[in-house]
Specification:
It catalyses: L-ribulose 5-phosphate = D-xylulose 5-phosphate. By secondary structure, this protein is α+β, with helices and mostly antiparallel strands. Helices cover 42% and strands 12% of the residues. It has one domain (4-226): 3-Layer(aba) Sandwich (L-fuculose-1-phosphate Aldolase). It has helices at residues 4-19, 77-86, 99-107, 116-121, 138-155, 184-210, 216-227, and strands at 29-34, 39-42, 58-61, 66-68, 92-95, 169-171, 177-181. Strands 4-3-2-1-5-7-6 form a 7-stranded antiparallel beta sheet, with helices on both faces. Bound molecules: 5-O-phosphono-D-xylulose. 5-O-phosphono-D-xylulose (5SP) binds at residues 26-29, 43, 45-46, 74-76, 95, 97, 176.
């Protein structure tokens, strides 16, 4: 069995997604790459995470040709392998359907950098790709996912390329996040933090949108009812 250690790392990353509530049933996937051998280890498609074992992982070339494995590779294999070919600094890719990050992806909105928690992990907004063409057939659709991510990172919003390790995630419009890192543990960790900062961003934006100060009339009515009309602030 090829790449025993990488299989175990990728399995652990897949199980971390379940433990952290980032995926349901067979949603999402994780993979890792051994660049010296030019081989990718990826989760098999549609397999219950509770039954997943290292020997179930599928080993492919970086072009997606199956080298070892009896099960079908994840349906996102093309996206994972394209990211490995185009982002030479990354060692693992994770795809989740985590609630808040997926909500931003479905809304076609980037996750804004609103605080230090975000800034500790993502050097700027977590981008969202252009909406994928809905007439795409399965094969092209999956391929377009990776291309949409890579094209965004090639030029960013201002024509400048983005270092994928500086912003180790991208939301696919209408779909969900793809996240990466130096290794499988790092990629899974980044996916957990992505969901946390997406939730914080959603809550922050909701608070900002719904927090109007109360009117002075209401302040007067309530404050003076309790403290007497003659009261002035701080003398009650
Ligand atoms: O996003 C999707 C389907 O929309 C996929 O990522 C599935 O959530 C997992 O597919 P497999 O990895 O089991 O093929």
């Amino acid at each position: 069995m090829l790449l025993k250690e990488l299989r175990e790392e990728v399995l652990e990353a897949n199980l971390e997604l379940v433990r952290r509530g980032l995926v349901l049933y067979t949603f999402g996937n994780a993979s890792g790459v051994d660049r010296e051998q030019g081989l990718v280890v990826i989760k098999p498609s549609g397999v219950d995470y509770g039954k997943l074992k290292p020997e179930h992982m599928v080993v492919t070339t970086m072009d997606g040709e199956i080298v070892e494995g009896n099960l079908r590779p994840s349906s996102d294999l093309d996206t994972h392998t394209l990211l490995y070919r185009e982002f030479p600094s990354i060692g693992a890719v994770v795809h989740t359907h985590s609630d808040y990050a997926t909500s931003f992806a479905q809304a076609g909105l980037p996750i804004p950098a609103l605080g230090t928690t975000h800034a500790d992990y993502f050097y700027g907004p977590v981008p969202v790709t252009a909406a994928l063409s809905d007439e795409a057939v399965q094969g092209r659709y999956v391929h377009e996912t990776g291309l949409a991510i890579v094209e965004y990172f090639r030029q960013g919003e201002d024509g400048q390329p983005i270092d994928p390790l500086a912003v180790p995630a991208c939301l696919v419009a209408g779909h969900a996040p793809f996240v990466w890192g130096r290794n499988a543990h790092d990629a899974a960790h980044n996916a957990v933090v992505l969901e946390a900062v997406a939730k914080m961003a959603y809550q922050t934006l909701t608070l900002r949108a719904n927090c109007e100060s109360v009117s002075k009339a209401l302040l007067d009515r309530h404050y003076f009812r309790k403290h007497g009309a003659s009261a002035t602030y701080g003398q009650c």
